[in-house]
Design brief:
Helix content is 52%, strand content 16%. The protein is α+β, with helices and mostly antiparallel strands. The strands form three sheets. Strands 5-4-6-7 form a four-stranded antiparallel β-sheet, covered by helices on one side. A two-stranded antiparallel sheet has the order 1-2. The longest helix is centred in the first third of the chain and has 30 residues, at 84-113.
Amino acid sequence: MGIIIAILLFSFIIIFHELGHFTLAKLNGIRVDEFSLGLGPTLIGKEIGGTKFSLKLLPFGGACMMGEDDADDMSEGSFNSKSVWARISVIVAGPLFNLILAWIFCIVIILCVGYRSPEVTEVSPGYSAEEQGMQAGDVIKEINGRNVYIWDDLSLYTLAHPDEKTYEIVYERDGKEYTADLELRQLDGDASPRLGVTSGGKEKTGFLGAMQYSVYTVRYWITYTIESVRMLVTGQVGVQDLSGPVGIVSMVGEVYEASAPAGIGAIFLNVLNFGVLLTANLGVLNLLPIPALDGGRLVFLIIEAIRRKRIPPEKEGMVHFAGFAALMVLMIFVMFNDIVKLF
């Protein structure tokens, strides 16, 4: 069952991503040759309005084929015949739709279970927070100059910056703001270093509040993804910690197994929460300036907009081909690593 849920979730996220490209292409009068879910040979397909909608054999990935790689096609309705700004909007739309989907998922989750407020519910003895005079009821506003909107913002910062000597915390008490310089401390029985402050359960809110705190939650996941990439580049985490489709299916299966005893509602919300992580990651990673990804194509379009002249298509094609080859090698490595983890 976990495998089926993983495929359905991943497929929906991919379709929504490609729907972004498709929607902006149609709005800009660009011809879409094929809109497909999956990779490999076509299982079923039907042409509607000049676009072939198809389902492929392998249930991972998808495509919105607009002829963007055919530099010689300058016919009416072709991708390359449109202005650079029209093409930029089409490329950005896919990742943007992923972030919109993450926001929608978050609204549903927050309406059902609420959000983690940055209000301190407990100050543990023996830690820096107690020594600095923090109390239950304090609302944390900033950590080292970064705004804190939800409790996860605080947790992420300490996780991504474990070597900071002190953390300047700005908090509010009775309408006034105070500052405390805290340090991480690991006492006996602690799995990891702590500041000594704890947040309790989740705070419920109405629809408008859910919309607002969903923005903060998506912001958190965007920051989480960027910090993860930074930690990968700086060597704080290794390539072996990456997960591909096999690892994603395995994790969704674990989420399902852990949630099943609590009923279908818990399964739905936990899978939806995992979906937020997936779609936000896909949106951010696709905007990275890596050849063959949306971000790589965006770099060439921005350069074209600045110099008002297109980079020779054959050179751009070579760069994207090299990037695609490198991504395939990385994908094979990650998939192999995922399979090894299963045994």
